[in-house]
Amino acid sequence: MTTQELLKAARSARPALMGASTDIKNEALLSMADSLWARRGEILAANAQDLEAAHTGAVLLDRLALTEERIAGMAEGVRQVAALPDPVGRVLRTVERPNGLVIRQVAVPMGVVAIIYESRPNVTSDAAALALKSGSVCVLRGGKEAFRSANAITEALRAGLEAVKLPRELVSLVQDTTRQSAHELMTAVGLVDLLIPRGGAGLIRSCVENALVPCIQTGTGICHVYVDAEAELGMALDIIENAKTSRPSVCNAEEVCLVHAGVAAEFLPRLKKRLVEDRAAQGLAPVELRLDSRAAAVIDGTPAGEADFHTEFLDYILAVAVVDSPQAAAAHISAHSTGHSDAIVTANAATAAAFIAQVDSAAVYWNASTRFTDGGEFGLGCEMGISTQKLHARGPMGLEELCSYKYVVTGNGQTR
């Protein structure tokens, strides 16, 4: 099936969801989750083929790899979406006019949502579940490196839909993984109501620059952790280790560490010991520290170039700079951040409040890891992506962010 034929089939399937009750949608989601687990053998076999064909580093292979545990997590994510309140039909606001008109702002589905993503197969089930619960048809376009995995997952989800007598076209995977199919989704005016790209800076930029359909700018994550002069340094080390090393290939991983000059002499040697020496001694990948001139005066590491503070490494690499104040840290973040997730570690509540006010990112943390920027961690179920723009949606995109609204106006014969 060509991409155009697939889009038309998706559009034709939309009426099956437009009047679907919450119970019907939840039954479908539970069936999809069961089907994912029942077909885990097929999914893992397809994933093994993708991994065998991949020519990439260990960190990116981690993004691609599936295990029984990860498939169980995917199925559980779908079940969690089923347990969430249905956003469709929710009355957002009611206005009663002096002339007797009652005007209600009501949440409605987007329609057909297309998602372009790269090497993370779990996005397939997350996106499909959120789209279905929010009443929208889902058209997926994965990367070629994960195509077999995404296709097997999609077929499992479609089998779940058919088991409850809903059209399998409610969830579709574009079979063409060339740039042409991505361009077709970007320009599918009248067939796609919302386009969401999930991937690296190149993909996001291409969609933002070329899309003729409404597009949500989801985020590359140049995420910062600032260690203040009044930080509890043990806490700061724990937060940074988690933010950088727990899963460096994801967008909420830390890429830049800023350290107040007042604690740099004490903190930086401890940082190097924790991220480099201790990890190497444990047989773990050490973090390469790319140091500005002030940090390099305290510890050894790789000299940082200006580009290192503008780079989403997605690897065991951390850019490190020394700053003179919380205001300087906020200014550095303003100049280099992608507006995704940034954090301050401090015991001073007033300093934290000022930092939070000055840092204009989708998520700003005080004494916590940036790795929490995630739909599941925020109680939204899984997520469609992390929006780094400000119009319509910002931060983790859950069910409510996948709805639009319309005005329902009730009268008793009023004319103007």
Report on this model:
With 416 residues, the chain is of the alpha/beta class. It is 42% helix and 19% strand. It is built from 15 helices and 16 strands. The protein has helices at residues 3-13, 15-18, 22-38, 40-53, 58-64, 68-83, 122-133, 147-163, 179-186, 201-210, 233-245, 261-281, 293-296, 326-336, 349-358, and strands spanning 91-96, 102-109, 112-117, 137-141, 171-173, 194-198, 223-227, 254-260, 288-291, 302-303, 317-323, 341-345, 363-366, 386-387, 395-396, 403-410. It has a seven-stranded parallel beta sheet with strand order 10-9-11-8-7-12-13, sandwiched between helices. Strands 5-4-3-6 form a four-stranded parallel beta sheet, sandwiched between helices. Strand 9 (288-291), helix 13 (293-296) and strand 10 form a beta-alpha-beta unit. Helix 6 runs parallel beside helix 7 (122-133).
How would you summarize what this structure contains?
With 416 residues, the protein is α/β, with parallel strands linked by helices.
In which order are the strands of the major sheet placed? 10-9-11-8-7-12-13
Shape: globular
Number of helices: 15
Q: How far is the first residue's CA from the last residue's CA? A: 50 Å
The proportion of strand residues reads 15-25%
Oligomer: single chain
* DSSP summary, beta strand count: 16
Class inferred from helices and paired strands: alpha/beta
Low-confidence stretches: none
- State the share of residues found in helices, binned by percent: 40-55%
Radius of gyration: 23 Å
Please tell me the overall pLDDT: 92
Characterize the largest beta sheet: strand count, sense, and whether it forms a barrel.
7 strands, parallel
